Amino acid sequence: MRSILLVSHGSKAPRAREEIEALAAQLKKKSGIGIVQPAFWEIESPDIPEGIKQCAQKGATEITILLNFLNSGRHAGEDIPKIIRQARQNHPDVKFRITKPVGQQNYLVDIFLKLLDEQTDIV
């Protein structure tokens, strides 16, 4: 069974958590993938290893790590791949895949242009 682990940085702001949970729900609905699990680098839970464990416990045989990070950096380029390598040892029957950070996608410019069209005044 395919699954998505939506990995975000984590924040102390409760609204950020709500936004990630809403994003995960939208991904689940629109993708048709039965398991969409948020996980966080720090501050929030579950952390990435726990999120992987939860996906596996729900029956995931393939986990795609969806990086909700804007740019490449130490976390996206080194830390998270290291966690995934360890997870492969803990879950040898699960296939792991990882996306590029959002900022490496060509269509990001289109998103930014749309944001510029929708700008609002600061209140």
How would you characterize the overall build of this protein?
The protein is α/β, with parallel strands linked by helices and 123 residues long. It has one domain (2-117): Rossmann fold (3-Layer(aba) Sandwich). It contains four helices and four strands, in the order E-H-E-H-E-H-E-H. The protein has helices at 14-31, 48-57, 74-90, 108-117, and strands spanning 2-8, 35-40, 62-67, 95-98. A four-stranded parallel β-sheet has the order 2-1-3-4, sandwiched between helices. Helix 2 packs across helix 3. The longest helix is centred in the N-terminal third of the chain and has 18 residues, at 14-31. The termini are far apart. The model has no long low-confidence stretch (mean pLDDT 94).
Helices and strands, with pairings:
Elements: E1 2-8, H1 14-31, E2 35-40, H2 48-57, E3 62-67, H3 74-90, E4 95-98, H4 108-117
Helix pairs in contact: 2-3
If classified by CATH, what would the architecture be?
A: 3-Layer(aba) Sandwich
Pairing-aware structural class of the strands and helices? alpha/beta
Radius of gyration: 15 Å
Name of the CATH first level = Alpha Beta
What is the 3D shape?
globular
* Strand ordering within the main sheet: 2-1-3-4
Major sheet details? 4 strands, parallel
Order of helices and strands: EHEHEHEH
Runs with pLDDT <50, length 5+? Answer: none
Helical stretch tally: 4
Mean pLDDT: 94
- Proportion of strand residues: 15-25%
Care to count the β-strands? 4
Helix content: 40-55%
Distance between the termini: 46 Å
Remind me, CATH topology?
Answer: Rossmann fold
What is the count of structural domains?
1
